[in-house]
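Ligand: fe (ii) ion. Inputs:
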Amino acid sequence: MHDLGAPDAKGAKDGLHELDGFENGLIARFEEHPVLAGITRLPEEDFTALLLQRRFVSLAFTPSYDLAIDLLRDEEGLRIARIILREEYPGATGHAPSHREDMTEDLRLLGVSREALVASRPTAATRRAITDTLELIADAGGHADSDLRLLTFLRFWGEVLVSVEYARLWERMGPLFTGGGGGRNRSRFYHPHLVHDAKTHSLATVSLLSDTHSDRLAARVTELLGRAEGVDGASGAAGFRETEERALRLKTAFYDQFG
Ligand SMILES: [Fe+2]
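Predicted complex:
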């Protein structure tokens, strides 16, 4: 049966190239969301409101990861997800600020006052974005290919698209963080995340040596995809596509409120 090895491997690679193109299409659509594409033209108070609403989604990041971890059964996937979750709380002693504290510090540097922070409440659309995220994760956990769907969701919703969002926001906030003192970048949250969450490799060429959160998860997602293909044709790809489309819809619905 050794002669079947090469064509199968080629088929799997072709499948990954196809999924990669599909994913890049979704990324491009998100980048062109009118609010994100027009971020530099948004009135100042709308930009502040956007950042304050986006903060609530960030606050829901860790419970979302926890829920997915609850439902994951794949040991390797669990290992990757646990490490990423713990990186949100750096240091073993509890003395270092969490990534969410870094976010609030970035907001302060951007001129958001404590009063504005205190007065801010999630809008209906923001609340929906959060509850729909938990719903989508729970739903993923109920499918036969739950591990593939859960890891696909964590990667695309929690890493790839986050990096796309912050890259857009950076077009506006970048000068505020890098201006002044010797060109030093003072952002502790938005800029580091736009770098370490980014997709830097095609799904077809991702390796375990890639170190962004997106690429670490991609290494396991592509393994699970290969396994699903072996069992029953295109089912793995279908779950992947459906999950990414739903994740994108969640994200765009959140930004629609600022249009
Ligand atoms: Fe991340």
